Amino acid sequence: MVKNIIRMGASWCAPCHLFAKTFEKVSEMEEYKEIDFKSLDIEEDEESEILVEKYGVKNVPTTLILDENNELIYKLIGNLSFKDFTDILNNLINGDEQ
């Protein structure tokens, strides 16, 4: 079950800024109110160091989709459209294969 979604980016990253708008819009949607959304800057947030190492983040933006035990369900790399992001989330929430 999808419980946490963490967007990892950097202040100098143009695709990160583009995806941030989509991420914020999706995080405010009623159908995802049970999911915790968080954004981290890989160069400024201490927590990001642990996540970069644990989940092998090599590029930004990277979005980590985690379950209630903070186990990785899915890792998205790059800037996604609103439709692509919500399609992936809906498939994961509904238990469809990716």
Molecular structure report:
The protein contains 3 helices and 4 strands, in the order E-H-E-H-E-E-H. By secondary structure, the chain is α+β, with helices and mostly antiparallel strands. The chain has a single domain (4-93), classed as Glutaredoxin. The chain has a 4-stranded mixed beta sheet, with helices on both faces.
List the helices and strands and how they pair.
Blueprint: E1 4-9, H1 14-27, E2 36-41, H2 46-55, E3 62-66, E4 72-77, H3 82-93
Parallel strand pairs: 1-2
Antiparallel strand pairs: 1-3, 3-4
What is this entry, summarized?
By secondary structure, the protein is of the alpha+beta class.
**Average pLDDT, to the nearest integer?**
94
- Helical content class: 25-40%
Number of E strands? 4
Top-tier CATH class: Alpha Beta
Structural class: alpha+beta
Shape: globular
**Structural domain tally:** 1
Strand content: 15-25%
Name the poorly predicted regions: none
What is the C-alpha radius of gyration, as a whole number of Å? 13 Å
Query: CATH homologous superfamily name?
Result: Glutaredoxin
CATH topology: Glutaredoxin
Strands ordered across the widest β-sheet: 2-1-3-4
The total count of helices amounts to 3
Query: CATH architecture, please?
Result: 3-Layer(aba) Sandwich
Give a short account of the largest sheet.
Answer: 4 strands, mixed
Strand/helix succession = EHEHEEH
End-to-end Cα distance, whole Å, is 14 Å
